[in-house]
Amino acid sequence: MSITIEPLGGLGNQLFIYGLGLRLARDLETDLICDTWNFHNYSWHAYELETFPNSISKTFSSRSREMFGHKVRGVIRRARALHLSSSRAERLILEPDSTFNSEILRVPNGSRLNGYFQSWRYLEPVAVEIKEQISNPVNPSQWMHDTRRQLAEIGPWIAVHVRRGTYLEVPIMGIVGNDYYSRAIALLDSVLGDLPLVLFSDSPEMLTDLQSRYRDRVTLISSPPEVRAIDVLQVMSDASHLVIGNSTFSWWAAYLKDRPDRMVVAPRPWLDDKNFNERDLLPADWITVGRDFSEAN
C-alpha cells in the first residue's frame, strides 16, 4: 500500500501536494509514490520534485491517466454527486475546495491525491523535514552560488516578486499591479527604513515602473533559461523580508526560512477567482495588503 500524489502546476504547487503526501505517508507508515501524468503534453511547467532530495519511493506516469485522466476526474465527481462510485474511485481524493480540510488527514492507506492543497496547516508536522530537503537542491547551479554571494554582500534586503507569465492567459488568477507593490514597499519602509530592493520576476520586461520608481535601491535578478526554479527559490528565500506576489513560488520562498523577525507582505485577494479562499493559505503572522486602492487599509 502507499499514498500516491498527482502533482500539477509549477514548483510551488508541486511542493504543497508533496508536503501533504509526505505527512500522510508518515502518519500511515507507508510509502509515498508520485504519478506525474499531469505533465504529459503540458508545456507550461515541468515536473520538479526530483530537483531536491525528496522522500518519494517511486515516480512513474500512468498511461491511462495520460489519455483519460482529466475526463475520468470529471466522471468521478459526477458519480459521487449521484452517490455512484466504485471502491477504486473512492481511493482518488479530489480536493473539495481551497481551504484546509481535516477530513483529508484521515484518508486510508492506498489513497491517491489530486489537487493543490494550498495550506500551511497540512504541512505542520513535516515542515522541518520538507524545508531541509528543499534547501539542499540536487546539483545546484553556479548561478545560484554566485547570486547568493552577491546579495549577501549588500546586507539586509527585501525580495519583491512580480508574477506574470501564464497568469496573463488565465483570467481567474488576477494580475497584481504596481499599486500593491508600492503600498507594500512603503509599509516595510515605515518599519525597516529604505532597505535594498531585489526584484524577481518571470516577466522582467514588465518591471520598468518599479525600477524607475526605486532606481537607487533596485537590483534586478534575471536567471538564465537553463537555471531551475529550485535554484531561484534558494536565492529568493535568503531575503531578510519579502513582498510576494499571488504566487505559490514566492509563498515558498517566504515559508522556507520563516522566522519571527522576518516581515512578509502578501496580496489580497490572492486570486480573482471568487471561489478561492486564502484563509488557510497565508500564515497568521504575514501581513496582507489590498491589491487595489479600493482594498487598501
List the topology elements:
Blueprint (H helix, E strand, L loop, with lengths): L1 E5 L4 H18 L2 E5 L22 E3 L2 H19 L5 H4 L1 E3 L17 E3 L12 H8 L7 H11 L5 E5 L15 H15 L4 E5 L6 H6 L4 E4 L7 H9 L3 E3 L4 H9 L7 E5 L18 E4 L7
Parallel strand pairs: 1-2, 1-5, 2-3, 4-5, 6-7, 6-9, 7-8, 9-10, 10-11
Helix pairs in contact: 1-9, 5-8, 8-9
Task: Describe it.
The chain is 33% helix and 15% strand. The strands form two sheets. A six-stranded parallel β-sheet has the order 8-7-6-9-10-11, sandwiched between helices. A five-stranded parallel β-sheet has the order 3-2-1-5-4. It is α/β, with parallel strands linked by helices. The protein is built from nine helices and eleven strands. It is globular, with a radius of gyration of 20 Å. It folds into two domains: 2-129; 140-295, Rossmann fold (3-Layer(aba) Sandwich), CATH 3.40.50.
Annotation keywords:
alpha/beta; Rossmann fold; 11 strands; five-stranded parallel beta sheet; 297 residues; six-stranded parallel beta sheet; 2 domains; 33% helix
